[in-house]
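Lab notes, practical 5.
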Amino acid sequence: LEIIPARTIVLKEAAEEASAPEEVVEEAPAPEKSAEEPALAEEAPLLTPEEVPAATKLVSSFLKRNGFMTKVALDASGVLVKSKDSRIYLEKGTVVYMSFKDLSMVNIGDRYSVFKTGRRIFHPKTKKYFGNVIEISGAVEVTDVNGKTVEGKVVETDMEFQIGDRLIPYEMPLKEIEFIDAENEVSAVIVATHEDITEIAKNDVIFLDKGGNDGLKPGNVLHVYRENAKVRNPLNKSEKLDIPSDRIGSIVVVRTAEKSSTAIVLKVSESLLIGDAARTAAAK
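Output from the prediction step:
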């Protein structure tokens, strides 16, 4: 399977499409935007109906190969222990044995994605180890559960993987991008990017520190804000005043784990940064 770089994901705005010249009609000048609301592309439509299938295909290809796991989720993941023929590097059809900390949720017929851990990510606010970027290389299917021994076979090999690689529950490929309203207000922080870049632009893949347990769902749109430094009150030298945050972009969640999410950047008015805050679109 060809790796699709995050920057190739096409999320072109309808407003950017070429249009035929129109007769100029004089209109009243539009009201000036508040300094607290930087100019952004129009909120709707985020994608035209024609763009959704292509974007879905590319996003799905990315999610099939890449992701993020919190430290807690990584500690709870399974592992490939041994292959039946003692080979180290595995191919489709190889019989393998697996180990899981919690066997209560493991059943015959279950599929698990095989992944390798990438760079460690530290939370930009707490500075504590938060999780790892991961690379998904294939899938195995459970064929037997005997006591603590779980037997399975390799059913997908998108790239080479081996004994010792980790396991997480398999997710079906994304079928469509459907924007949905958040059910409650969720505030998150951008903790990492897939490509380890410092200036985040439109179409980049990012990871958030909030997930399904916090109320986020795939399709939720969040607005991104840059916090401004407090300023000293000239009327009271001992007091500092809060300056409203600047809204600088919008993102859409495309995958959720319990305590983290993967999102795609839809639009920006300036480069986003690790540590920027994001709030669900319904939040005020």
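Observations recorded by the TA: Residues 2 and 257 are 25 Å apart (CA to CA). The longest strand covers residues 129-146.
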